[in-house]
């Protein structure tokens, strides 16, 4: 009989490519991962792995087993959901991943609703960059998470995960306000987003830290407009970004939930870009009562001014 825990390791290896990466992600030692995969090969009765230098490649049999593992793990998630639904009331921990603007603007109201409807459920929020959510969900460190994507940074399909759309946000160019402009009041960009961005091609830019979706979004939007931004500051928190813009330190692209309380020294121009937020969970877990309850509470907490997300990436 194949061991489900070892099937999880094989799936992670297919995703990450090295035993060291699997060990680091799942808090195992590399030798423990190698040992467990060796046991899985003996259980399977044929080779599942081929070593190519420092990396490990799955054999055709290994790739086929990963596909079966995805189906098995999804069925297990559905079984857990059915068992949870059969219990009386929701109780226990629900581990939630969220990014900062959603944590501030959406999640608190959702938690109030959740506490009123399911007082024995214990939501536990951990701020997690969307780029790290897939690994945390597959590893079991999170049960559900909010993730986002941008027009210039579409989210890749993640095996073993399912997403549901929540809301969309407009994007704004934040720049020091001109003396005669109505500072702090968003203006429409019109149809030529590239022209708006190129106006600031020679200005210093403020981006998120490299490796985040927000950083990639700003860089790619500027490159699509015909230039590479000259980055002066790298800051992840949008309130701090706007404070730097107000201080004349550069320009930035900021999502709708990030412009709340913008200083009057900041001029805001709406762009033809969007950030779309989804709810992510392990495939098969969408029917779990706790996940479904959190999703319903989130949707009730979304402010009316946020748009319904577009279907396309």
UniProtKB/TrEMBL annotation:
Domain HTH lysR-type: 2-59
This protein's UniProt keywords: DNA-binding, Transcription, Transcription regulation
Pfam family, one: HTH_1
InterPro entries: LysR_HTH_N, LysR_subst-bd, WH-like_DNA-bd_sf, WH_DNA-bd_sf
Family the entry assigns: Belongs to the LysR transcriptional regulatory family.
UniProt cross-references to PANTHER family, sorted A to Z: LYSR SUBSTRATE-BINDING, TRANSCRIPTIONAL DUAL REGULATOR HCAR-RELATED
Name of the protein this chain belongs to: LysR substrate-binding domain-containing protein
Record organism: Streptomyces goshikiensis
């Amino acid at each position: 009989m194949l061991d489900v825990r070892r099937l999880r390791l094989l799936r992670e290896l297919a995703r990450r490519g090295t035993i060291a990466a699997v060990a680091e992600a799942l808090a195992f030692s590399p030798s423990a991962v190698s040992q467990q995969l060796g046991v899985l090969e003996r259980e399977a009765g044929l080779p599942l792995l081929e070593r190519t230098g420092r990396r490990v490649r799955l054999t055709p049999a290994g790739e086929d087993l990963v596909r079966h593992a995805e189906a098995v793990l999804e069925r297990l998630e559905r079984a857990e959901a059915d068992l949870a639904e059969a219990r009386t009331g929701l109780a226990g921990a629900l581990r939630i991943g969220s990014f900062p603007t959603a944590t501030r603007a959406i999640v608190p109201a959702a938690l109030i609703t959740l506490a009123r409807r399911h007082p024995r459920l214990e939501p536990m929020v951990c701020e997690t960059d969307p780029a790290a959510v897939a690994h945390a969900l597959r590893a079991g460190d999170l049960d559900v998470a909010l993730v986002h994507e941008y027009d210039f940074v579409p989210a890749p399909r993640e095996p073993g995960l399912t997403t549901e759309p929540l809301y969309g946000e407009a994007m704004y160019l934040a720049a020091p306000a001109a003396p005669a402009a109505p500072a702090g009041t968003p203006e429409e960009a019109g149809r030529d987003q590239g022209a708006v961005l190129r106006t600031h091609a020679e200005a210093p830019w403020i981006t998120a830290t490299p490796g985040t979706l927000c950083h990639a979004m700003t860089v790619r939007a500027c490159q699509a407009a015909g230039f590479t931004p000259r980055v002066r500051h790298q800051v992840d928190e949008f309130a701090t970004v706007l404070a730097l813009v107000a201080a004349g330190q550069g320009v930035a692209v900021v999502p709708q939930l990030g412009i709340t309380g913008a200083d009057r020294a900041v001029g805001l121009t709406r762009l033809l870009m969007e950030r779309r937020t989804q709810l992510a969970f392990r495939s098969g877990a969408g029917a779990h009562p706790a996940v479904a309850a959190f999703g319903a509470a989130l949707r009730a907490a979304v402010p009316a001014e946020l748009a319904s997300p577009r279907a396309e990436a």
